[in-house]
Amino acid sequence: MVVADPGPPPRAIRVHRALNVAASPMRFEVDPRELLQVHEELEQSGSKLAIYHSHTRTAPYPSQTDINFAAGWPGVEWIIVGLASGPTPLIRSYLIDAGEVREVEIQESSP
Fold it and tell me: Each residue of 50-69: pLDDT tens digit?
């Protein structure tokens, strides 16, 4: 999960690495208690949440599983790291609302 300053523009300020409790390269699942802890932190700090994960065998585009999961997280950006196209990962970000997928530009910045 990515904790972000809401901006504008939104800016990642911290990464919270979550354990994939599904223990599968084909799907991810985060422990609900861990999600609740991060969500409470965000509410207290006024920060924004983005969720990131990798696609090890496919392009960095939301799968149907991602789209279904996103239904419970309106307004959250989904950052997907694609590892299938070679040694250089492809990174894309999306907003998913009511099953509609819209790519969001990622801007790199200096520390």
Answer: 888 889 889 999 999 899 98
Indicate the length of the chain as a whole number: 111
Query: Domain boundaries in the chain?
Result: 2-104
Q: How far apart are CA 60 and CA 80, in angstroms?
A: 5
Q: How far is Cα of residue 82 from the mean position of the Cα atoms in its chain? A: 12
> Distance (Å, rounded) from C-alpha 20 to C-alpha 48?
21
3-state secondary structure of 72: coil
Average pLDDT in the chain:
87
d(CA 54, CA 56): 6
Q: Which residues, including other chains, have CB under 8 Å from residue 109's CB and lie 6 or more apart?
A: 11
Phi and psi torsions of 44, nearest 5°: -70, -35
Dihedrals phi, psi of 105, to nearest 5 degrees? -65, 140
Distance CA(64)–CA(17), nearest Å, equals 23
The CATH number of the domain covering residues in 2-104: 3.40.140.10
